């Protein structure tokens, strides 16, 4: 797992496109997207986010969008990560999210993370110091 430092911005963790554990997490997120859809219906749930896969110059970049709305069968959200690559989206842009480009989902219930499968893979690979820093900065508790 490579780490990309960007000044004051959060570290980007870069993984190989053939990383089996990460690909399994993405597959699980896609198989359970119905759980995310169901959770959107309940006001007790918060912090809805979808991770979107962008294909950029034959490389993949995954970027989180927040404030998710589902209108009919389409998702919309606000870009919440500063993209690492130069692409046609930027922080705070409102975007339509294609279902086949979703690589993860998350929301919280009573302060606990639900979903976030790729987050869990990355967190499990962090050093103890990185985990402690991540846990302090991340607003949700992870089981």
Automatic annotation (TrEMBL):
- What residue stretches are annotated with the DUF2314 domain? 19-137
Pfam short name (any one): DUF2314
Could you name the domain of life of the organism this protein comes from?
Bacteria
- Classification via InterPro entries: DUF2314
Write down what this protein is called: DUF2314 domain-containing protein
Q: Species name for this entry?
A: Epilithonimonas hispanica
């Amino acid at each position: 797992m490579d780490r990309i430092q960007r000044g004051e911005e959060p570290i980007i963790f870069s993984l190989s496109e053939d990383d089996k554990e990460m690909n399994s997490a993405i597959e699980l997120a896609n198989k359970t997207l119905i759980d995310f859809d169901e959770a959107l219906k309940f006001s007790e749930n918060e912090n809805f986010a979808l991770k979107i896969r962008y294909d950029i110059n034959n490389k993949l970049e995954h970027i989180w969008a927040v404030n998710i709305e589902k209108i009919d069968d389409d998702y919309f959200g606000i870009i919440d990560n500063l993209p690492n690559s130069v692409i046609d989206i930027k922080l705070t842009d409102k975007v339509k999210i294609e279902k086949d480009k979703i690589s993860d989902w998350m929301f919280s219930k009573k302060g606990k993370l639900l979903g976030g499968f790729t987050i869990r893979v990355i967190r499990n690979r962090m050093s103890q110091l990185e985990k402690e820093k991540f846990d302090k900065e991340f607003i949700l508790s992870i089981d």
